């Protein structure tokens, strides 16, 4: 079980790659807009302004064109006009049979997305003591008698000493059932949230935007780094969301029976963004899921979704907001309103 010395560097690398992923998804959004209305002058001007804003945008645009071609889609008309020379763009795709295309598309898409997806996973793999894969769950019993139920594609780092018990949720979601030990508090860190308990049961979910804590039994204290607030006490049925950027805490209540419902194959969410739910569904889906439409991604939802059928859950999630799920290959889904 590892210490905590290298976590700051790992967190910074993960944040950098999250930004690269978001920029790539913005580029895909522009491609979808151009495909929907290739002759609109406003779309053309908006794309030019976005490309001129940063070199990272132009790099993402070239990668998006490559991914679009790799997925078997014909690039939108005029796509080769942006960015202007001397920056190169992908050549129009050659027609080929569906069967011959499948393997090539998978390899090409993997190459395009490797940089933005592989580095965070590698950092988590290096730090984690326990982890799960896509669609996999696992119950871990710690040496103090506490149990941790790991959701799909989740990871924790554990440090147990005579002075204290510390667990960091590196990715995903976990349900903790903590053995009481009055001499050694049990601390869970996730993003910029910190939960301190003696003996209790609670659920912690981590994504790019926030950390959510739901208390099933006992009493815990929760704080957010950088928010300037004192520790907030939670009672059973309380839910606290710690903003990933500011550390600010918002509170709500949830039915006790819905806390940790993912252990039975159900995902309950309360007033969270579509982006946040997609990130949770991604842990149960073997295909990459992109939400290039930023407006759709920011819509807030409350609902119950079936993790045993992530494609159906994804469609149910975005349909009320005019969203569609495009299965562009067995290896990728793109969610947008276009």
Topology:
Layout: H1 7-36, H2 41-53, H3 55-70, H4 98-127, E1 130-131, E2 138-141, E3 147-150, E4 155-160, E5 165-177, E6 186-190, E7 193-197, E8 201-206, E9 210-217, E10 220-224, E11 232-234, E12 238-243, E13 249-253, E14 266-273, H5 274-282, E15 288-290, H6 294-297, E16 300-306, H7 310-318, E17 324-329, E18 332-336
Helix pairs in contact: 1-3, 1-4, 2-3, 3-4, 5-7
GO molecular function: sigma factor antagonist activity
InterPro entries: FecR (IPR006860), FecR_N (IPR032623), Ferrdict_sens_TM (IPR012373)
Pfam families: DUF4880 (PF16220), FecR (PF04773)
What does this structure look like?
The protein has 338 residues and is α+β, with helices and mostly antiparallel strands. It has three domains: 7-127, no CATH class; 128-255, Jelly Rolls (Sandwich); 265-338, Phage tail protein beta-alpha-beta fold, CATH 3.55.50. Helix content is 33%, strand content 30%. It contains seven helices and 18 strands. The strands form three sheets. Strands 1, 2, 3, 4, 5, 6, 7, 8, 9, 10, 11, 12 and 13 form a 13-stranded mixed beta sheet that branches. A three-stranded mixed beta sheet has the order 15-18-17, with helices on both faces. A hairpin with a 5-residue loop joins β12 (238-243) and β13 (249-253). α1 crosses α3, α1 packs antiparallel against α4 (98-127) and α5 (274-282) runs antiparallel to α7. Residues 3-7 and 84-111 have low confidence and may be disordered.
Order of helices and strands: HHHHEEEEEEEEEEEEEEHEHEHEE
Euclidean distance between termini CA atoms = 47 Å
- Report on the biggest sheet: 13 strands, mixed
Shape: elongated
CATH level-two architecture of the largest domain = Sandwich
CATH topology of the largest domain: Jelly Rolls
List the uncertain runs.
3-7, 84-111
Protein name: FecR family protein
Pfam families: DUF4880 (PF16220), FecR (PF04773)
Keywords: Membrane, Transmembrane, Transmembrane helix
Transmembrane segments: 100-126
């Amino acid at each position: 079980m590892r210490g905590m010395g290298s976590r700051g560097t790992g967190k910074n690398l993960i944040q950098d790659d999250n930004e690269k992923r978001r920029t790539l998804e913005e580029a895909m959004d522009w491609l979808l807009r151009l495909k929907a209305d290739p002759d609109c002058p406003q779309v053309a001007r908006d794309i030019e302004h976005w490309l001129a804003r940063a070199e990272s945008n132009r790099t993402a645009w070239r990668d998006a064109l490559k991914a679009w071609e790799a997925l078997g889609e014909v690039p939108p008309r005029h796509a080769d006009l942006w960015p202007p020379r001397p920056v190169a763009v992908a050549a129009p795709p050659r027609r080929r049979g569906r069967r011959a295309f499948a393997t090539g598309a998978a390899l090409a898409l993997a190459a395009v997305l490797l940089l933005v997806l592989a580095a965070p996973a590698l950092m988590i793999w290096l730090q984690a003591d326990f982890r799960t894969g896509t669609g996999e769950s696992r119950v871990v019993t710690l040496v103090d008698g506490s149990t941790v139920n790991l959701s799909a594609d989740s990871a924790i780092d554990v440090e147990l000493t005579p002075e204290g018990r510390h667990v960091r949720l590196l990715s995903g979601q976990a349900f903790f059932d903590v053995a009481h030990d009055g001499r050694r508090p049990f601390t869970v860190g996730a993003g910029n949230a910190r939960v301190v308990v003696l003996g209790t049961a609670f659920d912690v979910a981590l994504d790019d935007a926030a950390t959510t804590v739901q208390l099933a039994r006992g009493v815990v204290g929760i704080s957010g780094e950088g928010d300037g607030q004192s520790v907030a006490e939670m009672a059973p049925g309380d839910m606290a969301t710690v903003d990933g950027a500011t550390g600010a805490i918002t509170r709500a209540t949830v039915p006790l029976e819905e806390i940790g419902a993912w252990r039975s194959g159900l995902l309950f969410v309360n007033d969270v963004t579509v982006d946040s739910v997609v990130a949770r569904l991604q842990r149960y889906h073997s295909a990459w899921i992109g939400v290039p439409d930023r407006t759709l991604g920011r819509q807030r939802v409350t609902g119950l979704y079936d993790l045993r059928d992530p494609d159906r859950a994804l469609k149910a999630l975005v349909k009320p907001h005019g969203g569609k799920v495009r299965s562009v290959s067995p290896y990728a889904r793109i969610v947008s309103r276009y």
